[in-house]
Design brief:
70 residues
């Protein structure tokens, strides 16, 4: 992971699904857990979803707060 990935979480919008239009960083934990069980999609979105799931699962979402202020 590189620091730019964290910035992408607060600017990338979910392109499809139940939470289409929400920032990846704002997706609920249960939705991220569902992807973890069912499989993350391929490509950049899947990589970001997996990263956000790890952050959320480990209670580290507060680390994104300073990036949101930019």
């Amino acid at each position: 992971m590189n620091p730019q990935d964290l910035e992408l979480l607060v600017v990338t919008i979910m392109p499809y699904g139940k939470y289409k239009g929400r920032l990846i960083a704002d997706l609920p934990g249960h939705y991220l857990d569902w992807f973890a069980r069912s499989g993350f999609p391929p490509g950049e979105i899947g990589r970001l979803l997996a990263l956000m799931r790890e952050i959320d699962h480990n209670g580290l979402s507060h680390l994104l707060a300073p990036l949101r202020k930019r």
